[in-house]
Write a structure and sequence with these properties.
By secondary structure, this protein is an alpha+beta fold. It has 11 helices and 12 strands. About 40% of the residues lie in helices and about 10% in strands.
Length: about 325
């Protein structure tokens, strides 16, 4: 993963941290607060000092590379005395954690809240309402996630034929609707990007480019221009497929007399039962609504940092609103 993505995630996590949160260094346990978040640096201040200390982005990248490139845990004793806050801030990222007992900084596959932040406890607001996007892709993708959860896609050969049909149909619908959305987004990006340099987002980058398409002018114009340059028309004229097909209809020749024929078999989507899809989709939405109901969920008191990790999407999750897979695991 490029560091730019990691840095972007760290800034997002810091943005969700309460302004009065207190951070602690992993070894000396010195408390400090975050004064400012900038694109290329952070400003912190220790509790017993009035001056601010800059933490530079390139230094974070250096630490990130050392932790990521090593198969072993990074020993915090290797840090200079004034570099401990870098480890604290890096542990904000859900894929890094500080083990104070062992004195190490490591990668982790399980998102965990940082243990080096002290923040006031807050009750999560369960009354917030969410609007579902009115997009076919949204509904079809939710149905596809449900199908992937109920059937193991890594063992397709063991699935029943009807299950494979369902999976193929949903994949086809998602692909079609995703491509429609992609083209709409592409049109907007084309209006906004006016140079050929890559423009980066959290998950990738795009670049404006051009494509050259050629279409021949009418036959008479092409032949006349070429003949003016001494090119005989026989050198550029070819057999017209449409006229060959017309000739087949009025002669005794078979198609195989004039064409090399290569047949291949494939499966195509023949029909979609929209009523069944809508019924299943409504059932999933009802399950989701029940799982998110305040009556069915215990009150949680966590700081924003912990909530951020708690809500972090699973790799197959569509978005924070539709997180069926995560809800089933959590509840």
């Amino acid at each position: 993963m490029p560091f730019a993505v990691t840095w972007h995630t760290i800034l997002e996590e810091l943005d969700e941290t309460p302004p009065d949160a207190t951070f602690r260094t992993p070894l000396s346990e010195k408390p400090f607060r975050l004064e400012d978040v900038q694109e290329h640096r952070l400003l912190i201040a220790y509790r017993d000092q009035d001056t601010t200390i800059p933490l530079k982005r390139d230094q974070f990248e250096t630490l990130y590379q050392r932790v990521s490139d090593s198969p072993q845990d990074f020993d915090l004793d290797r840090l200079p005395a004034d570099a401990e806050p870098y480890a604290t801030i890096l542990s904000i990222h859900p894929r890094f954690e500080v083990d104070q007992r062992q004195g190490v900084l490591r990668n982790t596959d399980t998102p965990t809240p940082s243990s080096l932040i002290d923040a006031p406890l807050e009750v999560e607001d369960d009354t917030q309402t969410h609007e579902e996007p009115d997009l076919p892709l949204y509904s079809d993708a939710l149905l596809l996630i449900d199908a992937l959860e109920r059937h193991d896609p890594t063992t397709l050969s063991s699935m029943e034929t009807s299950e494979l049909v369902n999976l193929y149909t949903l994949c086809s619908d998602v692909q079609c609707n995703a491509d429609d959305l992609r083209q709409d987004v592409r049109s907007l990006l084309l209006d906004r990007i006016h140079h050929d340099r890559p423009v980066h987002g959290q998950y990738g980058s795009v670049q404006r480019t051009s494509r050259r398409n050629r279409t021949l002018k009418d036959d008479q114009t092409v032949i006349e221009r070429l003949e003016e340059q001494g090119i005989d028309r026989e050198r550029v004229t070819t057999v017209d497929t449409s006229k060959v097909d017309e000739a087949l209809e009025i002669t005794d020749l078979s198609e195989s007399d004039l064409y090399e024929i290569d047949e291949s078999q494939y499966v195509r989507k023949a029909n979609v039962d929209e009523e069944v899809k809508e019924s299943r989709l409504q059932g999933l939405k009802d399950q989701l609504a029940a799982a998110e109901s305040p009556r069915d969920r215990p009150t949680r008191t966590r700081n924003r940092r912990a909530r951020s990790s708690y809500r972090r999407p699973h790799q197959f999750q569509l978005c924070k609103r539709i997180r069926l897979y995560t809800l089933r695991k959590e509840w």
